[in-house]
Amino acid sequence: QVQLVESGGGLVQAGGSLRLSCVASGSIFSIYTMGWYRQAPGKERELVAAITSGGSTNYASSVKGRFTISRDNPKNTVSLQMNSLKREDTAVYYCNAYVTRTVLDGPPYQYWGQGTQVTVSS
Predict the structure, then answer these.
(1) What average pLDDT does the chain have?
(2) d(CA 27, CA 48)
């Protein structure tokens, strides 16, 4: 089994910063793309940022220039530095990772964390 555990959410004023972290643990052979998604009340879950094992990144247009995703491959962690936060960034943020558990696995399986709440007040 593979577990993703997020930390770092909370309440912050608009214009402030937060840093989210996620660590993957369990039966892991290789981790491919890792990312952060978010889901606001009444809205669908959306990609915020993703990073490949080689360090290539992809961001939602709404967070470009404000959020930075990074990862530490030996530690199986991915982080999201969020600056200049806006009220519309308020959501539950989910860590995501594509993982193979053994050398015999086929395509990687997608795992999710339990989510961490980020609330931005005006």
Answers:
(1) 96
(2) 26
**pLDDT value of position 104:** 84
Query: How many beta carbons lie within 10 A of that of residue 18, not counting itself?
Result: 21
pLDDT tens for 42-89 read: 999 999 999 999 999 999 999 999 999 999 999 999 999 999 999 999
Dihedral sign (CA 5, 36, 16, 75)? positive
Q: Distance between CA 62 and CA 66 in Å, rounded?
A: 9
Distance CA 86, CA 24 (A): 28
Whole-number CA gyration radius for the chain: 14
3-state secondary structure of 41: coil
Nearest to 33 by CA among 78, 1, 83, 93: 78
- pLDDT recorded at residue 90: 98
* Measured distance CA(12)–CA(18) in Å, rounded: 8
Cβ atoms of 8 and 21 within 8 Å: the answer is: yes
